[in-house]
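User: quick one, fold this
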Amino acid sequence: MMRRFVYILMLGLLAAGCGKSGVTGGVPVIKVAYWGGPEEVAIIQRLVADWQRSHPEVQVRLEHTPFGAYVSRLLTRIAGNVAPDIMAVEVNLFPSLWAKDAFLSLQPFVSQDPEFRVQDFFPEVLQRFTVNGQLYAVPRDTAPFAAVYYNKTMLDAAKLPYPSDDWTWDDLLRMSKQLTASENGRTTRYGFYAWAWQNFVYSNGGRLVDDLNNPTKCTLGDPKAVEGLQFFSDLMNTHGVAPTPIALGNLAMGAQQLFMTQRVAMFSSGFWETPILRQIKDFEWDVVMFPKGPRGTRAFGTGGTGYCILKSSRHPELAWQVLKALAGPEAQERMAKAGLGQPANRTVAEGPAFAQSSEPPANKGMLNRAVQHVVYEPFIPEWREILELTMLPELDLVFHGQKSAAEAVKAVVPKVTMALTRRKASGVVQQAGAGPAKGAQ
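Assistant:
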């Protein structure tokens, strides 16, 4: 009762500042920036509307921006001192945004709020949003690139057993060869498709850099990393079991369409593919964990989303209450039931809304085990620029079959290492507290 009284008194004091920014008609306004497709937007709108009915003393204003323009628009707003109170942030974009020093540490709220239980979350996901022992975002979902979708009906017709979570690269290649079909010298069905080339580096024991928290050199030249890149390329350019970038362009289809039209028997991605795949009526399908590498290593990249509070918020205490609704168990349950997200709250992820749900895919619970094997991108603000401008142009030549992996990394490694060295020399170094997840096991 006392906490409720203090909360209401605080709202009254805030409402008294009617002329100040962040207050409309005497009611504090909490602005939330987020992205998402129509179904996700509808879920968030319903969630906030339900929450508002029992919290009329605060107004939540949802501000949607398409993901393609999201970061640039938010950076402009932050620079112009017109930022929202809360913003959604993707795990691999978090380092760049955190470096702007715009986020408020949530640690005081976490420490003082008995309703919030950090132990309910996957620790690997919390670690990504933790810097110098301070939590800066509450994760709503996690998204390991660990799901391989497969056509069960097609495997039945080929008299192939379904893959298990313990399968290997060799199993993947063997099955992909058996599932690939051609007619008059033209491939009519591919056995496999994947876009996350990093998975093949990680699951072979390789890494992109020497230290995810404070990288000083590129390690793609390590034989294990080179082997992983080459295996990925060979699936397309040597074995012909996966579409090359050119073939993919000619097909003019995304992974979902290829799978749904049975032009691909298996494809690797994340749980977010699920909503549209649940519309499939022509065949049975399921998911299996991304295969282990030749050395028995299991590791893959990951995505995910969290919510931050900005330092510029005039009502951080109220923003915390809204954030808890946006990233709380109910929100995560709704997203999971729609097939839009794997809950970052481990308790929810292991419950009836996700792992125990009868909705397809049946084996989605394996993604909860996958979380402990994820590898996040390096925790430096420059990483996306280094990746897109320095690494990918050379790696694309490998994926197109124009260079071997060994040739490409000879060009990539010194360029990336030089960029990291310049960064270190400039003094732009930050320390991720608990750091990214521990990675491969």
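User: anything notable?
Assistant: The first strand starts at residue 23 and ends at 24.
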